[in-house]
Amino acid sequence: MKKKILAGILSAFMLLSSACSGDNSSIGEVSETTLTKENIKAGFVYTGSIDDKSYTQAHDEGRKALNDMGIQTEYVENVPANEDSVNAIIDLIEKGCNVIYTTSSEYDEYTKIAADQYPEIIFNNCSGDITSDNLGIYSARTYEARYILGIVAAMNSKTKKIGYIAPKPIPEVIRDINAFTLGVRSVSEEASVEVVFTDTWNDEIIEKTAVLTLISDGKNIDVIASQQNSLAVQKFAEEKGVLSIGNNYSTSDTAPKSYLTASVYNWSEFYVRSINSIINDEWSNKTYWEGLSSGIVDIDDLTNINAENVSEKVKEVKEKIKAGELNIFSGEIYDQYGNIIVEKDDVLSDDEIWQMNWFVNGVVGKIAE
Hints:
This protein is an alpha/beta fold. It has helices spanning 2-21, 55-68, 83-94, 108-117, 142-156, 171-187, 204-215, 232-239, 268-279, 310-322, 350-354; strands at 41-45, 72-76, 99-102, 122-126, 135-140, 161-166, 192-197, 223-226, 243-246, 259-265, 288-290, 297-299, 333-334, 340-342, 363-364.
């Protein structure tokens, strides 16, 4: 049904274009108009609000880095992943934006609709799967940070029973859960990670229910990691006396008695690089996917409630990942059913990691169809 709706939207926009210009021959071609620091204007489409202390605020700090270098920007907050996002993009273009960043994979098909309609505009979508002549993809290797967070969780857990609250069973979430679990199991081979999917990126009521699910029935879970875009898990975990690991942003003040650390983003590393590549006429639709060594992703400072020696271990592992001495998805790796997926001397390719749809041994929970 979604694809039929998208096809209808796309057809309507293409007919409008034909009526207005009488010529669609340039569709899919980036304009040869030179973009400079003086005339470039970047537009951002956000899923949340710029003060959410989470995913959107992290992206917006990247936008502000462009302002700091003298680049004009516009943004739209709280845009749903439906045809409204196409309208939001068009509004930004009508305000003079000639570069567009849509900050969620759920915008990918809608971004493609706009990219086809405006071939002279450069588009970039975060974590999606669709590219074209004027549409590229950017993402961060968050799984590198998640592996370290798994180590933090295991070293702070007394029961070696750890919970993980995840939004949706999509590859970017699945690979993060797997990396986290591999980090946990590098500390204790007997440890487990129980996963609860919320099927939403941000819903405090559902997330609180997920916390209750994890700490009920004598499961003995004493650390809960969140991959949600709200702060509900951290707040509720503290209420229930459970340690927590956050997501996207430094929020140690949100749950000071519970918060261990979090994965954090530095999106300015990408946005500044991207804008400079456009100004220097070096932009391409090649996927940008970097990790700890680039600085785009990291973990927050460890709070003083962490167990002894955690800091030293984190520093050691982080340096190994940055130096390329530790490849997280290298063998031997078994799935949760005991089947070997990665042989001892093998390493998963980027494509295999990008499309990951299976859980590693140690994960408790299923991937919904």
